[in-house]
Amino acid sequence: MTATIETAARPDRTGAAQTAVRLAGVGKSFRGGATPVLDGIDLDVAPGEFVCLLGASGCGKSTLLNLVAGLDSPTTGTVEVPSGRAALMFQESALFPWLTAGQNVELALRLRGLPGRRERRVEAERLLDLVRLRGSYDKRPHQLSGGMRQRVALARALAQGGDVLLMDEPFAALDAITRDVLHEELVRLWETTGLAVVFVTHNVREAVRLGQRVVLLSSRPGRVAREWRVDIPQPRRIEDKTVADLSVEITEHLREEISRHGR
Amino acid sequence: MAADSSLAHIEAGLDALETSPEPERGTLRRVVASALPPIVAVVLIVAVWQALYAAKIWPDWKLPGPSQVFSSLKDAYRNGDVWPAVGHSIGHGAVGFGASVAIGTPLGLLVGRFKPVRAGIGPIMSGLQSLPSVAWVPPALMFFGPTPAMLYTVVLLGAVPSIAVGVVSGLDQVPPLYLRVGRNIGARGLASVRHVLLPAALPGYLAGLRQGWAFAWRSLLASEIIVQSAGLGHSLGFLLKNAQDTNDMAGAFAAIALILAVGVAVNQLIFVPLERHVLKARGLA
Ligand SMILES: Nc1ncnc2c1ncn2[C@@H]1O[C@H](COP(=O)(O)OP(=O)(O)O)[C@@H](O)[C@H]1O
Ligand SMILES: [Mg+2]
What we know:
- The structure holds two protein chains of two kinds.
- Chain A has helices at residues 61-69, 101-112, 117-130, 146-159, 176-193, 204-210, 241-259; strands at 21-28, 38-45, 50-54, 76-80, 86-89, 164-168, 196-201, 213-217, 224-229.
- By secondary structure, chain A is α/β, with parallel strands linked by helices.
- Chain A folds into two domains: 1-85 and 164-263, Rossmann fold, CATH 3.40.50.300; 94-161, no CATH class.
- In chain A, helix 2 (101-112) packs across helix 3 (117-130), helix 3 (117-130) packs across helix 4 and helix 6 packs across helix 7 (241-259).
- The radius of gyration of chain A is 18 Å and the shape is globular.
- Chain B has one domain (67-74, 82-281): MetI-like fold, CATH 1.10.3720.
- In chain B, helix 4 (82-113) crosses helix 7 (148-172), helix 4 (82-113) packs across helix 10 (236-245) and helix 9 packs antiparallel against helix 11 (249-281).
- Magnesium ion binds at residues 61-62, 168 of chain A.
């Protein structure tokens, strides 16, 4: 193990006590698994912070997000989301095919307890407008392109009204141009909404393009191997030289992490 | 903001390029396209039948020709036998099927949702499904006598298992991802059942209903053919049995044609459009 563990200073915008997500000593084992999938993960995400979680396939990124989303519970340690709920987005939009785009968003509003049919309709239209899908309220998910579906899913996540957005490789299945546009869209939404975002990816460039902080996870067990602050100001582009340079450095560490398992 | 509006333009361009307007086929063309093949098939079958009849391999009382069966149908119609019999059977079928849905649906939900119930009842349900429901006619007759209760019992025992099995397979096919999304957006307990599980299981459920109707109709006709009484009235099964009793082969074929017609009509007018509507809305058809 050669990589040094570097703990960046927490961004401290709103006071030390405030965090959007706090993981302390989190470990997760599945029944029958010899080594734990996750082990001793300490990770704080500040309100409004954009953190990218980077790691090889199978290192436990999805497992970690599921823990934060409350869909699973850790074997050891604690997961705190002080605001209560974190919205989760997947690689597949996972919109309900029996509802229209607008109804998908409305369902999230309704389950969140927003009263009034009319109010929900108006709010759903506002959210669709926010992801620039004003005219797609009555479209069925199968009538939308992959990128549009992910934007509806984004609107649905916003409808949940939490202040944490968890994204599990949400753009991995999209073509490069669409992904590029969605990167821009996501950063714009993040800046306007002030959400804390935890964005999981195995794409180093994507992580550097988006995040204020990039956290590299090791594999088997998944631990925080190292993290970087990304001080390149937004708007960034994926082809920027500064993005490329940091990506090269991070890729080196990722390769090293992976090759440890080949020895 | 210039950057923002250029993003909006790129996005609008991508959206426009990636979604194609759906081709709308005219209703008339669709009806013709779906009605033509079965009509051709029926014409072919009647033609083969007529050829066999014309070849005189069997005597008329064994194999009547299409025209004889048709005139037998016409006679029955003139005598006023057809509509009451059809109405009678459809009435019993509808009540029996409705009751089967009312029992089979919650039963399927119980079996699909609760492991111990599934372990206990699941195999029995599948077994019942493979048991010919006509087997229930003798015990039901002994228990209830020749009454509608006896008919309904046989129909229920035929249709309830297949509807319940349909519900279970509908539930089993619900992608776990939907349930996880549902939980994440705040659907727990009953809300999850109502907003996620049931709508997601609907296509499988509809397939189960369609099969349930087929079982209900078969079971009903089996009992009508076997059991006759004043209390049960003149049903399609009665017409068929009556034809047998008077050695009227053309009448028997006519009754079978009516039974078949009802089965096809219910399927094509109720279940097929319903399923198509649901699947189409989800982009599955
Ligand atoms: N429910 C589960 N039961 C058993 N093993 C699991 C389960 N979920 C994930 N794993 C295992 O945990 C490891 C990490 O999985 P995952 O979090 O999906 O990785 P990633 O998202 O980083 O690709 C994998 O080896 C996977 O096989
Ligand atoms: Mg994953």
